[in-house]
Design a protein that fits this description.
By secondary structure, the protein is of the alpha/beta class. The chain is built from nine helices and nine strands. It is globular and about 55 Å long.
Length: about 220
């Protein structure tokens, strides 16, 4: 079978891209070694978060870098044997983490992220799976006043500047809304435009159905 486009990887990104291409009449093959959504997209957070236009920066302070090197940061994990191959990437990541570069990234990301919820809803509605989307919003928690003030001065200011809706909450206010979240933090930012996907793996399967993209393993 001849196709116009081959999409490699049938996670949420690949399946969504293939579905949109197929809906536009483009002959598309979606290729993966497993069924759609069986890898990372099967058990991820399932969050569509349009306000995240400012990429996470590479840490600049020595204390954070030492904690990462010692494996004491939950958001960082690496294998020593892989480090030599990762160093060039990490250096470029650090270079791109200046405020000016992050602002430029935000300009590029906004047209994509601002349409993300509507685009996912369109595909899932076509597949009869719109019930998977829940407009819960997204909490970003800050353990210390310093981390909150740092976020407030740049990331939040930039993201709010794009018109995304948010609210600053105390631990007690978060606990009243969601008792499952322990009040062991300083402040929270509730980004209201975010949508939770109840079953990310099922959403990927539905995206593929919506576009009827040809499947090849």
């Amino acid at each position: 079978m001849r196709v116009d486009v081959v999409v490699l990887g049938a996670g949420i990104v690949g399946s969504s891209a293939a579905a949109h291409l197929a809906k536009r009449g483009v002959k598309t093959a979606l290729v993966d070694r497993r069924e759609p959504g069986r890898e990372t997209s099967f058990g991820n957070a399932g969050l569509i978060e349009p306000s995240g236009v400012v990429p996470m920066a590479f840490p600049r302070d020595l204390a954070t870098l030492v904690k990462a090197a010692l494996g004491r940061l939950p958001q960082s994990n690496y294998h020593l044997t892989a480090l030599p191959a990762l160093l060039p990437f990490l250096w470029r990541y650090r270079q791109q983490s200046t405020r000016a570069n992050r602002l430029r990234s935000g300009v590029a990301l906004y047209p994509l992220l601002s349409r993300a919820v509507a685009a996912h809803r369109e595909l899932l509605t076509d597949a009869g799976a719109a019930h998977l989307l829940h407009p819960t919003g997204f909490y970003r928690l800050f353990r210390s006043p310093a981390s909150f003030e740092s976020h407030l001065s740049f990331d939040l200011a930039v993201e709010a500047g794009y018109g995304f809706s948010y609210e600053i909450l105390s631990p007690a206010e978060v606990a009243a809304r969601d008792p499952a979240i322990r009040p062991v933090f300083h402040k929270a930012v509730w980004w209201k435009d975010a949508v939770a996907v109840r079953s990310p793996g099922e959403a990927v399967t539905a995206d593929r159905r919506a576009g009827a993209a040809p499947w090849r393993a």
